[in-house]
Amino acid sequence: MKTDLPHSFRRLEYSPPTYTLGQVALDIALDPAHTIVKSRLEVLPGPHHAADAPLILQGEELEFVSLRVNGEVHRQFELSPGFLKILALPDGGQKAFIVEIICACAPATNTSLMGLYVSNGNFFTQCEAEGFRKITYFLDRPDVMARYRVTLRAIEADYPVLLSNGNLIDTEKLPNGWHLATWEDPFPKPSYLFALVAGKLECLEETITTSSGATKLLQIWVEPADLKKTRHAMDSLIAAIHWDEKRFGLELDLERFMIVAVSDFNMGAMENKGLNIFNTKFILAQPETATDADFANIESVVAHEYFHNWTGNRVTCRDWFQLSLKEGLTVFRDQEFSADQMGSESGRAVRRIDDVRVLRQLQFPEDAGPMAHPIRPDEYEEINNFYTVTVYEKGAEVVRMYQTLLGVEGFRKGMDLYFQRHDGHAVTCDDFLAAMADANGRDLSRFKYWYSQSGTPKVHVAERYDASLQQYHLTLSQSCTPGDGQTLKNAFHIPLKMRLLTASNDQAEQLLELTQENQTWVFEGLAERPALSLNRGFSAPIQLKFAQSQDDLMHLFFADDDAFNRWESGQTLAMQLILDNHLPDSALIDAYRHILTDPDLDPAFKELALSLPAESYLYEQCVEVDPQHIHNARRAFRHAVASELRLEWAALYQQMQTPGPFSPDAVSAAKRALKNCALNMLLEADPLIWAPMAVNQYQTADNMTDRYGALAALVICGSKEAQACLKDFYTRFEGDTLVIDKWFALQASRPPVKGAQSTLEAVQQLRQHAAFKMNNPNRVRSVIHAYCLNNPASFHLADGSGYVFWAEAVLALNAVNPQIAARLARGLDRWRNFAQPFQSQMLAALQRVATSPGLSADVREVINKAIG
Ligand code: PHE
Ligand code: ZN
């Protein structure tokens, strides 16, 4: 663990490497306690070489054994924490030379899950961003790309399967029950894309033919008992391969593409070249154990990692400040893929609404808080802390804006030029912008501020209708307050899709480009005052500041042909009432009724239209957040929507049943979503009447969506039937880790219920449960993160006890897994925005963590930035 003094890395301090690498040969003898790594590096002078420059390799938590240069034992070196510095190189390092290093590491005790580690008795690696240096001393930076040949040795009975990147070129039996496998990756790659896997695994395998007629082998490797849960992941992979050929002309470049699932993993998944490694959560699914949401997540994460093969691997990042170059682009690509997979326009819109909700609930707060950063950050202490919703989700919005400005075809031209120019190289966000601009002959110089300025821009709207001239005047002005003390000088280039809604329906959708602080547009020939539909499809990641009249909002909620804005107007109406502590008025209830009973509307849209803005999004609208007040206002509002529409909910609960055997398709999934939403509302309105219905659904369900949906409804409303069902659920699924994660998460996310045990007490008990494991990230997230980050009303307690729990958990995790600890540490970021007594209690908890000894660089950076 790095616990030295804080050190900041700065984007503008980039310099090209002094040395680079040609061939890399690794020979790894796998042993859980003591793995021996022999490396042979062909070192070349880099673009920035000066005579006699030492070769400085990174290395962490390694046991150094020996060093040779050009075959001779080399004694001129210095070892310091983090580095191996090799001096007195042949020819002053001006010509190629060979470095051979032997070192060792201890995978079995590696709980950080970075570098080489053991999970369930098998070996895995995680190298992004800087994990390779925990395997061997290396030039561990993404602009050093090398060709790898990897020999893995292990005891065959314990580790029958040995995998690494690329193609398998040799296998051999060795004395004493050992065996080896040699893999060669034909593509040069940075070290963060290296991977190895060894253990008792089996695979689902399929061969496919890609667009050029080549045959490719696809494999999904899992523990034998999980083999039956891999079909959906394989189907998703095949769909993603075909989609990328069709949409972007990008073909799979390897003969073999492997995915491996592991149950101990810090993130969702990792795009190692030809050997993706996945959190089991994003691979394993069967209808009995995975919800519709799980199925959709698997499809999108499998696609995301596959898409990285071009956007990330073939063209990679010059340095980690450019992370959004691959992540923003790849998220955009997976969003487009998932939208297309819905198979209908309304399905696409539903996906878009889901994506925007994530952005607003998670990224907007980040962009207004102490960890705010541009999608291309300027400075970091620990790069692991910058795998953020800003880099990923806002980064994807920025990529989407190119497509909005240039059109789908123009965007494709830009992508083609990007690959033509940069295939095989490590490049920057500026290079991507230049490809988009040059391919389309467009000046995008103002667009670059999306990369350098943090904060969510606000667009203020002023409108005026002149009846005598039949003119409509629209004035837009932009402003932006970043959270990180950046001073903003430059107006953003903001593409805003808009349409004027009129009775005669005679105005077409247009694209307005707001590029100055203030701009006015005049629209002619309007015989009546139109209703403005602006930022349609959420064409720019901004906050609209528009005091639109209730009448116009209501009109949009009934009649906007843009599904996103139709949904949005309903959200705005509800939000205003909740923030004013009002219940829904009769006009809004009528509008809800109209939506719920419209036979032509997609059930998935109905479900979204009736979902209220999240508490975390409501917080962003307040100057002094009182979490209990907001929770109660929102809950009362929800109760009113539930009870006033009880007849409609009951009718929907019947109509949305999907008789016959389970089917996972989008239409059936949408029905299940609306049905379970109805059940929740019915339990909210009349718990005594509907609890038996929920119990019945729980018991008779043939799929996890319905079984979990009923259980969650019972738990959330605090029904007395919940306990028995929870108990049944645990025994029913005891052997299935991912399902037991749901069991933990559901209890940890329960909102407060009058007269029942507090959620904090429940969470404290769950932490003592025999199945709770501090070193398994999924289990930790399902209990601790679910409670502290995802359950605001149960967490923000006036006596500060939630924060005390948080501080203890951050410190406990800090010693086990700094990345998982740092994620949790983000939980009090927004303390300055809270009312008293919450604010002081949060600060006290932050200070307690800040003054504790032994903080990892990860946790320290987050906490120091929060305190400010
Ligand atoms: N690069 C991975 C992705 O987004 C995320 C990741 C980062 C995984 C760091 C592990 C470690 O696809
Ligand atoms: Zn990614």
UniProtKB/TrEMBL annotation:
The keyword Metal-binding applies. Its cofactor is Zn(2+). It catalyses: Release of an N-terminal amino acid, Xaa-|-Yaa- from a peptide, amide or arylamide. Xaa is preferably Ala, but may be most amino acids including Pro (slow action). When a terminal hydrophobic residue is followed by a prolyl residue, the two may be released as an intact Xaa-Pro dipeptide. Keywords: Aminopeptidase, Hydrolase, Metal-binding, Metalloprotease, Protease, Zinc. Residues 109-193 form the Aminopeptidase N-like N-terminal domain. NCBIfam families: pepN_proteo (TIGR02414). The keyword RNA-binding does not apply. This is Aminopeptidase N. It comes from Polynucleobacter meluiroseus. Gene3D superfamilies: 2.60.40.1840, 3.30.2010.30, Neutral Protease Domain 2, Peptidase M1, alanyl aminopeptidase, C-terminal domain, tricorn interacting facor f3 domain. The lineage of its organism: Bacteria, Pseudomonadati, Pseudomonadota, Betaproteobacteria, Burkholderiales.
